[in-house]
Amino acid sequence: MSADAADGPQQWAMSSTLPARPRPVVPWRGAGVLALLLATVGCDGGRPLAAQTAGSEQQIERGRVLLAQYQCGSCHAIPGVADARGRQAGTLEAFSARSYIAGRLPNELPVLAAWIADPRALVPTTSMPAMGASPGDALAMAAYLDALE
Fold it and tell me: 68 near 82, Cβ under 8 Å?
């Protein structure tokens, strides 16, 4: 066997390894969901944005009820929500103290509401399912989580 023949399979093995392709830059897919959410709930008779994003006591209570209705407690432990003792996705205790949602999105009320409405639009690889929450329901649930200190 010649030296070239001995090197043949080795060369083939090295040449069959493709270099890693860089990930394409994709515009933030969740921008549409966030824009829809802001258009639906963002305009409130000229109130300042800070007042719009802070949850009222009524909205926070509605969010607590909706978290139970959408059965978020099947996967999450959520303080104050009946039967919300899920362990699959972790606790949502002291959620307002967190800096990030899903480890990568800024923990801000409109972003959290968009995450609840359609998590895969923001993080395509997430295991969190979309539960069909309307933008208003998602905002109420986000207000409750934002109130958890």
Answer: yes
